[in-house]
Amino acid sequence: MTALRKPRRAVSESQLVTAILKALHIKGVFAWRANSGTQVIGASGSSARRVIRGAPAGTPDILLVVPIYADIGAGCPERIGMLAGLEVKSQTGKQLPSQKAWQEQAELEGVRYDVVRSIAEALAAVMRWRIGGK
């Protein structure tokens, strides 16, 4: 007799961000969640409100520092950190116009950026950046 399997629920973008951050930390990558937008929180029992402003609209879900080695002269490579961003999307998710605009501006400034849909894609992007790829 074959057991019936329940269909697997799709992993949410939020769950994927959490999983990617854990994988990056295991690999020793300095990375953090970048919440964007504005959130208004009402205080219980009063009319007071608290406004929390996150990163600018379009900021990728994960920001990280990729260590690279640059020759700064005298044949002595120095380890420096390069800012990078990972925009996490589900298998069917698409970038918003604000996310595309952030990507374009960041890439003009030399920031590495990638849209990823899995832990494997995120780790591959970081490895590619570490060896100087785009």
Report what the structure shows:
- With 134 residues, the chain is α+β, with helices and mostly antiparallel strands.
- The protein has one domain (13-130): Trna Endonuclease, Chain: A, domain 1 (3-Layer(aba) Sandwich).
- Helix content is 28%, strand content 31%.
- The protein has helices at 13-26, 97-108, 119-130; strands at residues 30-33, 38-42, 49-53, 62-71, 77-88, 112-116.
- The strands form two sheets. It has a four-stranded mixed β-sheet. Strands 2-3 form a two-stranded antiparallel sheet.
- Helix 2 links the parallel strand 5 and strand 6 (112-116).
- The longest helix is centred in the N-terminal third of the chain and has 14 residues, at 13-26.
- It is globular and about 65 Å long.
- The model has no long low-confidence stretch (mean pLDDT 88).
Counting structural domains, the number is 1
CATH architectural group? 3-Layer(aba) Sandwich
Tell me the Rg in angstroms. Answer: 19 Å
Secondary structural class: alpha+beta
CATH topology: Trna Endonuclease, Chain: A, domain 1
User: Alpha-carbon distance between the termini?
Assistant: 51 Å
Q: Output mean pLDDT.
A: 88
The largest sheet has its strands arranged as 1-4-5-6
Major beta sheet summary: 4 strands, mixed
- The percentage helix is 25-40%
Tally the beta strands.
6
Number of helices: 3
Under CATH at level 1, the class stands as Alpha Beta
The fraction of residues assigned to DSSP E strands is: 25-35%
Uncertain segments: none
Order of helices and strands: HEEEEEHEH
